[in-house]
Amino acid sequence: MADAVHPPVHFRTHPDRYLHWDLSFDGPVATLTMKVAEDRPMWPGAYELKLNSYDLAVDIELADAVERIRFQHPEVRAVVLTSALDKVFCAGANIRFLGQASHAFKVNFCRYTNETRAGIEDASRHSGIHWIAALNGTASGGGYELALTADEILLIDDGNAAVSLPEVPLLGVLPGTGGLTRITDKRRVRRDVADVFCTKAEGFRARDALRFGFVDAVIPRSRWADAVAERARAAAEARAPRAGGPGVPLPELAFDERDDGWSGRFVDLRIEGRAAHLRIRGPDADPERSAATWALHAFRELDETLVRLRFNHLEVGLVLVRTEGDPAAVLAHEAAMLDGAAADWFWEEVRLFQARVLRRLDNGAKTVYALVEPGNAFAGPLLDIALAADRTYMYLDPDERNAIRLGRGQGGAWPMGNGRSRLAQRFPADPEAPARLLARAGEAIGAEEAEELGLVTMSPDEFDWEDEVRIAVEERLSLSPDALTGMEQNLRFGGPETCETKIFGRLSAWQNWIFQRPNAVGERGALKLFGHPERPVFDFRRT
Amino acid sequence: MTAIDYDSRIPNNVDLASDRRLQRALEKWQPAYLDWWRSVGPQVFADKEVYLRTAISTEPGGWANFGYVRMPEYRWGIFLADAEPDRRIPAGDHAGEPVWQQVPGEYRNALKRIIVVQADTEPASVEQQRWLAETGPSLYDVRNLFQVNVEEGRHLWAMVYLLHGWFGRDGRDEADELLARRSGDADKPRILDAFNQPCSDWLTFHCFTCFTDRDGKFQLGALAESAFDPLSRTTRFMLTEEAHHLFVGESGLERIIRRGAQLAKADPNGDARDQGGIDLPTIQRYVNYWFCYSLDLFGAEISTNAADYFATGLKGRWREARDYEDHRALDGVAVLPTVEDGRLVDTEVPLRNAMNELLRRDYVRDCERVVRRWNQVLEDEGFSFRFKLPSTRFFRRQGIYAGHFFDPEGNLIDEATWEARKDEWLPSASDRAWVAHLMQPVREPGKMANWIAAPRKGIHGKPLDFEYVRLD
To answer: Which site in A245, B95, B381, B415 is 20 to 30 Å from B163, CA atoms measured?
Structure first.
């Protein structure tokens, strides 16, 4: 079934099985220690993960750890991100791994690692967790970019340790996980200083790193451990404790695997040629405070389905999303989540998780069509999937029972990367539209009216439906996949920019362009030859 | 305003008197250097006159001017070996092109890094050895120690000259940092590990000058093949001095070995320790320790940086021009035993990526020659013990063998075996205590401590009982 050139990627892991990280807890302080196992690359024998360099498997564990800290350890108010190696924090993505990866894999790898890093910042902004990057040695490339996601960066001052972004001078590519954007937009480094920094392979050591704002503090080696611990304690105390119950364990998901797809409790995926049919079922029980509750479990299944689709099914260009079930139950779950958030962090985390999954949909490189058919459950959080889709087709049934329902969450419970609700994003010319529409939350809105209100793209009737949908699918699948990816990203992210949208936008534009160019990946390209005895040869003509 | 007379204060052949940029840099750096020397240089006999050699020119004999001098007044000079007319780049992608008199922008950072790492070792060993003179086994040995120290100081000058002369503000910053790091300091250690190990006894000192300084010889040799001509000329001159340091270590160990053998023969139980000497197995363990620590200095066996440095011409191989025909080294491979699934497997590595290992192999051959000489001494003394260098896999903390356990023959062993047997192979706490207790000063001209044999001859034709350090 999989058409990727690499073995299929699995995204499920658990701290008991981590190969590359230690996750430990001391009251309100968690410590996430990177200790990448050199001899355990995700493609056995293909390369060595030296100097805490990472591949996708390392990042999958990191992403898992971040989620578990949020759901299982509500007491945690500060996380120290550090390394178990002497003199090295992290050397960034493993170059030999990248060198062996196909272009598509590289792009997907960057997208995934960026989502992990955005998740760290999300946990700081919305879950009140203070992140401290404790750089006990050199942080280069992706290693420094990981540090840049933290609220504060501490660097050991031992005369040796440095922070650097050596991608341009050493590899002929760009830092791929938001480094350029974060130094200018988040750390507000002067642009000429940033220019010097990004072309100096060895980077800046303590004095210059501190002076120009690349780190927040430098600490001598003899005081390092105490100073980091002290800073973490102080940071944890400064963040308000979270109201609510104890941590909620995240059990592993289970899917029934088939030749043409997989099925979970709420999510079913079936691949047919270059289209994938994604079906999401509504709740089968009342809301409960556990990982089994529909609002969390269904979105965890959706999350894994989306990343599997990206990495393992490159041939799929179009995802057709359908929902089924009781829309009232979906809205009841939405209400439990939104109402519960004030008293219990758990419900807030569920909403934030849903928001992250929906952003994965925005950031994906596949066309998404929502198909609204009788019996659908497009309401509240599921309706946001239709709003995230590139187009929505709604069946105009003769007895006019096919309907969608706005929920209160449409008001901004699941912001896009640019900070806006998908409802506001949908009506750039009509800023009053969201409020007008939200006034009708909970109401069933039929196909004709939904089209009139601009909530769906088209509402073909019983005579046209089948043909319209078929033609829309066939036409889409005939167009250039590259042009479509670029077009979709442009159209999905109209309006204002944030650090996050810039990172993903520039990744899919600049980085992915450079990744294709002979100066990087040609026979004499810099990325291709890194680690080899030959030196790169550039075509110096600028485009 | 009186102009400073640079040429007499700082002997040089680089026309310092008319180089204002260099003067400006040195005016600030030189006082800091002297402060550094006073605070972490030799702490004993600092005010005494020592019979030292000073280089004052590159003419034949000019590098070896002998006379009494108080060390802080030593005239550290800046010398380049004479320029070779029409010198060509010896190695790498640019082989055969004219050498560079200026640093090419694209290699500036890499070249600076190479120079800084080399430079950092020079002051480090002075710091490591700063208390040694207190327990000197003879005035002859103390003088040799100081000679090594002042020349390491001069080597620092030589490297700083390059940083000041060609690397702008970055270079000046790096030169300042060279005086800010300290051997063994918890906060600002020296860059390489061997240079952070304590050197508190004379057996260690001689091992260090024999094995660790020998790394310097090969690094300087590789830099002498650099495309950057000022670096090549600087290091060629440094090699002359380095050879003397190796003589101090090599002959010093030979004297300790000879004495150990003599004392063992004299002892009814054949134990040199009972006669107040150092037994040969203890010396072997010190040799094991310092040989392996020094192997680490060559860097990873498989190295991208090494390949880059060679490709760009920044470093060549040992005797590149003399011993090699293919100076590009693009086609060959080196075979390296690597650990895979718990056993050693021969692995082919592109030659350029194995440049560190090639240099290490040259070094090992040189060390083997030294060991043969010691064994000849033992044979002459009628003694059956023979010294042996451990495998290059033994006791490594850098490179592909780090993190695994090997016996001195290079066989993979498990950690339990290592823990059980390491005191047979490396200096134990009791070895170190024994050696430490022998370190009692001998300050009468011509006399030697009991555990070390007298040298064959004195310095610069002077007798052994010459007053190499004037104590009054």
So the answer is: B95
